[in-house]
Input
Amino acid sequence: MTAMRKLWIWLDGATLIKAVYNPQDRTLSIFDETDHLLLRRTGLSPEQAQHLATRLAIIGARRMDDHDEPFTYL
Output
């Protein structure tokens, strides 16, 4: 069974930012609203991934990977 990607979105000022965590290759990628890669972090441990998920929730990011059409929830 393949692990599902996790997706968060939030606003940074007037810019929409999204973060995607891929548990298969343990990579977190952060993109701006035009899908330009801002940051990529590879080799995250499960504990680091959980810590990042907590930090993203603190800054107000919404987890969207469990929605079929995420942009209807903005």
Remarks:
- DSSP finds one helix and five strands in the chain.
- The beta strands are 6-12, 15-22, 27-31, 37-41, 62-63.
- The CA atoms of residues 34 and 71 lie 15 Å apart.
- Residues 6-73 form one domain.
